[in-house]
């Protein structure tokens, strides 16, 4: 009986080990994409503009007041915040959300921009557009030129505020790229991370008490922007930003009745599944390049800068480094001279590049150089060289 019990126990242990082994061989299922109710959405890491997740991300849709992200960054880049703006008549009584500009009123550009982004003033957007470009139409041209520069190829602006127009649209990915670009600007980031701002009354302006409508600032750990939007045509729209663990994420939802909850879900997904990981280090040695007609036969090279990418743990092991060095270079070579480029690829997509530089200078092997070397040796100037 004892022998049979031992035999049965051994069989049970072997069965458990076998099952555990088979389980280990099963493929690890990737984390499911989050359940989001938006018609279109995108999750992007701002510094690299890498799209981490999207659904219908390239579908052209209206974006309501998230338009004002572009209006704001153009005001920052092309205006003086201390400048005093005479409110144009076209900015009086604009439909929708407003800071209630008055005829004959003067405000600083700073006040208008905070009114634009915190109170979502449609009238402030018109006043800014006319101040910066002279007209709403010319400002829209600036908006479209900037969109192309940023890489938002499926976006077209007609208004500075996002009021309905059939020719005014973006995509979730494009809006995330525009938001990512804007968040690289310290002034923009400071504005959109501000929960409230009060401006006292003066001779021709009433006091204004501005409060951000973006609940991400109040309800999400690390939330630091950006802009809400709503029209009947666009539905609820939100570009939400959060910074944690050295990573700036942008979550964009278009036509989403549950926009705040869904953006939090997307941001959670990004922070739980990705980290900013260093895949190449500044100063890292990357081989040698042959030097023609130099006093040395070759020169060592190094990477110009650190490259950090938002990656999952699995992706980190899959990064492919392509080192493209010149076959040879003609002397003289100077320290810091560009001798190649490092490329970082993942699944056939280029995600990062950096120049490869010469570590030291190499002088040309000329007659005069050799003559001076001989004289220096004879005089003892190059002893120990």
Descriptive keywords:
globular; Peptidoglycan synthesis regulatory factor (PBP3), Domain 2; alpha+beta; 11 helices; disordered N terminus; 33% helix
How are the secondary structure elements laid out?
Elements: H1 2-25, E1 40-45, E2 50-55, H2 68-78, E3 84-86, E4 106-108, H3 109-117, H4 122-133, H5 136-150, H6 172-183, H7 186-192, E5 196-199, E6 208-211, H8 216-219, E7 223-231, E8 235-244, E9 247-254, H9 259-273, E10 275-280, E11 285-292, E12 298-303, E13 307-311, H10 313-318, E14 320-325, E15 328-330, E16 338-346, E17 349-358, H11 367-379
Parallel strand pairs: 11-15
Antiparallel strand pairs: 1-2, 1-9, 3-4, 5-6, 7-8, 8-9, 10-13, 11-12, 12-17, 14-16, 16-17
Proportion of residues in β-strands:
25-35%
Output mean pLDDT. 90
Q: What is the name of the CATH topology of the largest domain? A: Beta-lactamase
Largest sheet: 6 strands, mixed
Count the domains. Answer: 2
In what order do the strands lie side by side in the largest sheet? 14-16-17-12-11-15
Helix content: 25-40%
CATH H level, superfamily name of the largest domain:
DD-peptidase/beta-lactamase superfamily
Q: Any low-confidence stretches, pLDDT <50, length ≥5?
A: 1-7, 12-30
Q: What would the principal axes of the Cα set say about the shape?
A: globular
Task: Name the structural class.
Answer: alpha+beta
